[in-house]
Amino acid sequence: MADQEKKVTAAAEAEKLNDQMMVRREKMRQFADAGVYPFGQKFNRDHHAQEIKDKAEALEADGTVVRLAGRLMALRRHGKTAFCVLRDLSGEVQLYFRKDVVGEESYELFKLLDIGDIVGVAGNVFTTHTGEITVRVQTWTLLSKSLRPLPEKFHGLTDKETRYRQRYLDLIVNPEVTQTFIMRSRIVKGIREYLDGRGFLEVETPMLHNIAGGAAARPFITHHNALDMDIYLRIATELHLKRLIVGGLERVYEMNRCFRNEGIDTKHNPEFTTVELYQAFADLEDVIALTEELVSGLAVKLYGTTKITYIDKEIELAAPWPRMTMIEAVEKFTGKDFSKVTSVEEARAVADELHVQYTEHDGIGKIINGCFEEYVEEKLIQPTIITGHPLEISPLAKQNKDNPLLTDRFEAFIYGRELANGFSELNDPVDQRERFLKQMEERALGDDEAHQMDEDYCRALEYGLPPTGGLGIGIDRLVMFLTNSASIRDVLLFPLSRPEQK
């Protein structure tokens, strides 16, 4: 019954929309009949809405004629006068139209305007008796006739799927969304400024790979017709960037898209943005310090403080961030101490007690990681550095010199989500080849996310990779934290969606 009611409502809304669209098309025809092209030409503006508000006193005193352009977001007609609200990227400002100022013919055409139309105006600034800064329009021109009505103001655009599919409409009617993406741009710019200022060179590496490497993930596969070969959309930039370190580019970074053939949820989208950086003659401690400094510095740059609010928690980003090893974290939140576990059988027994799933091929390291993901991750609300990752799940990280079963690797978590991953890079070509072979064994046993053998990367290591610190940060998740956005889809202009049902 509820579904039927929804269909009836949707049909009624569609009929209403069609009627309004017909009216707007008739107005478009009337503009054309009057010799006004409904989709105008370039308009030279010299002010924006917020600038007019900021300089209103001086503009009003000087009688300056201002030229601005934007979209009409409100329209109230009162006989021979009318008030409108014009919005541009900077904000909104009120417009005042008078028939005896713009002229009778122009005012008659003004009556054909609708909310959503894009106009250019020229006029002088004054303040109404209610204190509203306003532009008294002297001349105006139609720049684009909107043929579809905007969502009505009271209910707005609230359906999430519509917002994500029609982001252009979301940006029009929800100003806070526009601010999120302006902030995203500032964050990306801030990252570049930070790294450029520390001698890092921004580079571009291929998005099409012969081998899907650099991460444990399922790739997208495509086919190159001319070469008649399957290739992969990259899942990470790591292996190409480390080749550049071998070549002598001592500090490099890349900020761009990666692609993983995985599910979609509030933390994952199949295409996403990362920044990966590599610094020769550095190690794990260097990239941990860089992570803490970069993230806390961005917060200060954006908000003037290292304290931010995310969802329902106040987050303190000031360095240094608390640290735990993965084994310590599992013990803290489960009471189970894997430091005393010496066999796979013991590890499985612990996992069984905790109801953590594993496969018959998983070793102690994967079981520890499974327990961590199940019981620890979501509890790491304040920024936390997790170190001591098992060798089994870290095929590109250097072994810890004190415990060869662990690696010099870290992950940073905030609000239960991984934000960064970094390590002292494995630069032993013999060890790296053996680990790739081990990964190939795991692929043969059914793990299609295990690394493939990359012969050229092994060859590059044989020429000599200096001791190197490497780091990857998820830009989308970082933007989520710094803009208080609950879902990754809120910080992607065009997140992937299913085809729209007709």
What does this entry look like structurally?
With about 500 residues, the chain is an alpha+beta fold. The chain has two domains: about 20-150, OB fold (Dihydrolipoamide Acetyltransferase, E2P), CATH 2.40.50.140; about 175-320 and about 380-490, Bira Bifunctional Protein, Domain 2 (BirA Bifunctional Protein, domain 2). Helix content is about 35%, strand content about 25%. Strands 6-10-11-18-17-16-15-14 form an eight-stranded mixed beta sheet, with helices on both faces. The protein has a five-stranded mixed beta barrel with strand order 1-2-3-5-4. It is elongated. The mean pLDDT is about 95.
Secondary structure layout:
Elements: H1 2-33, H2 49-54, H3 56-62, E1 65-78, E2 81-88, E3 91-98, H4 99-102, H5 104-110, E4 118-127, E5 133-144, H6 160-165, H7 167-173, H8 175-196, E6 201-202, E7 208-209, E8 221-224, E9 229-233, H9 238-246, E10 251-259, E11 271-280, H10 284-303, E12 307-310, E13 313-316, E14 323-325, H11 326-334, H12 344-354, H13 364-375, E15 384-387, E16 409-414, E17 417-424, H14 429-444, H15 455-463, E18 468-474, H16 475-483
Parallel strand pairs: 3-5, 6-10, 14-15
Antiparallel strand pairs: 1-2, 1-4, 2-3, 4-5, 7-9, 8-9, 10-11, 11-18, 12-13, 15-16, 16-17, 17-18
Helix pairs in contact: 7-8, 8-10, 8-16, 9-15, 11-13, 12-13, 14-15
State mean pLDDT (0 to 100 scale): 93
What value does the Rg take, in angstroms? Answer: 29 Å
Please describe the biggest sheet, giving its number of strands, its sense, and whether it closes into a barrel: 8 strands, mixed
Low-confidence stretches: none
Determine and state the CATH class of the largest domain: Alpha Beta
Portion of residues within helices: 25-40%
Net shape = elongated
The CATH architecture of the largest domain can be named as 2-Layer Sandwich
Q: What distance separates the N and C termini?
A: 21 Å
Strand content: 15-25%
Number of domains: 2
Q: Kindly name the structural category.
A: alpha+beta
Count helical runs. Answer: 16
Q: Care to count the β-strands?
A: 18
Strands across the major sheet, in which order?
A: 6-10-11-18-17-16-15-14
CATH topology of the largest domain: BirA Bifunctional Protein, domain 2
CATH homologous superfamily (4th level) name of the largest domain: Bira Bifunctional Protein, Domain 2
